[in-house]
Structure formats: C-alpha cells, structure tokens
Amino acid sequence: MIIIMESSANEAQIKEVIAEIRDAGLKEIRLSGAAKVAIAAIGREQDLNQERIKGLEGVEKLMEIQEPYELVSREHRPEGSIIRIKGVEIGGKALTIMAGPCSVESEDQFRRIALEVKAAGATILRGGSFKWRTSPHAFQGLGLEGLMITKKIKEEVGLLSATEVLDPRQVEAVCQYSDILQVGTVSMQNYPLLREVGKSKMPVILKRGKWATYNEYLLAAEYIMAEGNENIILCERGIRTFVTETRSTIDINAIPYLKEKTHLPIIGDPSHGTGMRHLVPAISRAFIAAGADGLIIETHYDPEHAKTDADQTISTEAFAILMGEIEKIGGAVGRTI
Fold first, then answer.
1. Is residue 203 a contact partner of residue 267, using CB atoms and an 8 Å limit?
2. Is residue 117 pLDDT above 90, yes or no?
3. pTM over 0.85
4. Could you tell me which residues come within 8 angstroms of residue 51 by beta carbon, excluding any fewer than 6 positions away?
C-alpha cells in the first residue's frame, strides 16, 4: 500500500499518517519524490483502517500496487528515479560509465587504470577487493588493503568508486572506503546481505542473478528498499542458458522490460555477460541502444595478465575507443556522456 500525500501536505499531517500505520502494526517507509511525499505501509495491509487514512488531512490517495514488489514498482513513481552521488547522476539524461579492473592488484596498477579510464570519460572507478572465486585456491582479492588503495586512488584521481561486498560483516568496512556498494550475481538472494546493504543507505549496484526471473530480481531490490535505502542501481549481467560458448547469455530484453516495471535505473555489464573481451564493444553498444542508463566494464592496461577475469577484460586503449562509439549511439537515443 502506497499513500500519496498532497503537494501541500505539512510535516504534522505526514506524521499523523505514519502514526496510523504504526498503530496498525505496520512499518512505514517514506519515499522521496519530485513534488509529493509518498509513504509505503509494509505489512498486513488488511489491518490498516484505509477509510480513516483516506479521510486524514493532506492525504491525496491510496494506491494498491498490483505487482508483488511495491516499493520498486514504477506504478507510484512513473517519472523514474535518478540516483545522485556526489555530483554524479545515474538514471538521468547522461550515461554513467563505470570502468576499472576486476581486482585491485596494487596501488600502482589501480592508479594507472584510474587515470586512463578517467581520461577516456568514465566517472566511476570499479575494482574488487573481495572476490568470489570458484576455487578456494584462486586469488581472493587484497581485502582491507585493497579497500585502502581504492580510497586513496579514487580521492587522488577524482572519481567515485564501486566495490563489491560479499558478506553482511563486510558492509560497514566497505562503506568507509567506497562510494557505491556492489552486490554480485551470486549474492542476489543473500537476504541477510541485502538487508544490511539496505540499512547502510549507501548507493548499491544490484546485479541480477544468473538464474533469476525478472520478478525474483525486483523482489531482491525490494529487500534493500524495505530497509529504507532507495539508492539502488540495477545491473543486467547475463543469465545462464544452454549456450556454453560464452560465459553468460546477455538478456537485452531485460533493459526495456525492467524500465517499464521499475523506477530504478539500470546499467549493463558486457564483461561478465560475455566472458570474451572481443564481444564487449558490440554488447556495450547494444545495451545503450536498448535504453540502459550506463555500463560497468572491466578494463586493464595489460588485460592478458590481469589476476582475475583476464579473458573478458578489455585494454584501456580499447576502452577509450569504445567510449567514442558509446557517445555516438547515446546521441542517437537522446543520451549524452
């Protein structure tokens, strides 16, 4: 249940609605909007005295959301959401390009890549300090050392940073060093992690699970928003199908479909979606043409010797060329860089 307040509603009227929600044993979430306050009532809606709430001063209407994901549904925010992080907007007219290595390997490595992706036009630096690996013997990331390098380099170069978090116990530490949390595909239904990320109120990139339906994906986002965190960026990174020649199968349908269903911005990950560096440029162009709000791309000055995901990492030189192509396609669909 979403309660839409009149644009003229004052704080006392809003608090009266919240009191009604709490008295019924439900939880309220105050949602930001362009002109009006919306309040979500979470819990057993049948316990709400809806007629009484309709009659309260300042209430414009009550909305019954048809989808199981009430908070992230576009029904109550048709204009869409823009995530604003220290001067960078995600979901607006300008495309947001995030780039960097799969893993932070050293201070020198991360600095050089940061400088090169910034020069090419990226505004957010990606780089993992904690890594999910199939083998327990593979490189797992630098951990806290990687976080410290991330903070130092992103401040030195002047970029925002995005870092994956694998465990609820890591959230507090990662929040101290990075601007954006990232929940990877294998963690999409790690509900304790989603709740902790939600409580942090930090911007978060939520990647779609490689097995997930659209409803399952949006309900994962709902877990984060149910904790009061509206700063969610969806990321399509491909799904597992019968195709074995590529790492995943890119679901281009997801971009326009999710745009219709949710107000959250969505970006594409052509690196994990293909697993092959020579396919990354074409899929990047396809994402933008389909309406994605941006991209997250793995790049390295020496991709063949990257410690993780070398096969899908493009060179920083190739990334610079790709940025020019993205700008042209973005212009054709009304977007800028």
1. no
2. yes
3. yes
4. none
